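Severity: low
Component: inverse-folding endpoint
Summary: output formatting inconsistent between runs
Steps to reproduce: submit the following structure tokens with default settings.
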């Protein structure tokens, strides 16, 4: 059984009259009505304090995540279109074209090195004034 603590309250007359009217209904009691009301008030207050504390921060994070998702979709679509374009215009190498394959490996290594350097230094190719780096 839950331990109960007695409280003495002072209520304004109109509020007291309303409480009396509610408690007069079958199965209702002043204690139960007040306990429910205090519980609901405390729950709302706790929720609103958390919302006030975190709502702005969560909104900012949500907006940032939305922009990141949009940007990643743009990057993926750009990459997919570039790959499709390159594959459609480049003729396949002959089986015995070792020079062409070596040149392809060298270009790929240069590409990976350039991407690694850009990521490590934080430079972005598409920023204004940085074209052609």
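Observed output (run 2 of 3):
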């Amino acid at each position: 059984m839950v331990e109960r603590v007695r409280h003495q309250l002072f209520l304004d007359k109109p509020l007291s009259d309303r409480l009396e009217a509610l408690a007069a209904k079958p199965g209702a009691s002043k204690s139960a009505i007040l306990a429910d009301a205090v519980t609901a008030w405390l729950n709302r207050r706790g929720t609103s304090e958390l919302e006030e504390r975190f709502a702005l921060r969560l909104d900012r994070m949500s907006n940032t995540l939305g922009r990141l998702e949009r940007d990643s979709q743009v990057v993926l679509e750009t990459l997919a279109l570039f790959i499709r374009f390159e594959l459609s215009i480049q003729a396949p190498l002959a089986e015995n074209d070792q020079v062409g394959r070596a040149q392809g490996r060298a270009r790929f290594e240069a590409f990976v090195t350039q991407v690694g350097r850009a990521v490590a230094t934080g430079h972005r190719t598409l920023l204004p004034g940085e074209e052609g780096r």
